[in-house]
Write a structure and sequence with these properties.
Order of helices and strands: EEEEEEEEEEE
Helix content: under 10%
Low-confidence stretches: none
Number of helices: 0
Distance between the termini: 37 Å
Radius of gyration: 13 Å
Structural class: mainly beta
Number of strands: 11
Shape: globular
Largest sheet: 7 strands, mixed
Mean pLDDT: 94
Amino acid sequence: VQLQASGGGLVQAGDSLRLSCAASGRTFNSVVMGWFRQAPGKEREFAAAIRWSSGLTHYANVVKGRFTISRDKAKNTVYLQMNSMTPEDTAVYYCAAYSDPLIVSTSPSRYNYWGQGTLVTVSS
């Protein structure tokens, strides 16, 4: 699976931004797609994930209610809609994927395909 993330940029606190992750290279029925983020000096952390086949989603508590992950099967693309953004959301955002028919994981080590990252900066 090849992943191409895009959509990052500079926004102000309270603004919204949508990230995209275009996927290619294999069939997706058993794939889980996730978004992670890494702020300067911090470890990479889970933000959201979606099971490709069913659309089942999972969110980290820090983004729940503000971020929405979705997928467009026709475009082989996963989105992360980010609303009510705060400076604490500033990070490089990565999309990632792995294949598993049962489990939606929040651990970066479980994901074996990664996009290149896109920088999101939220000013106060």
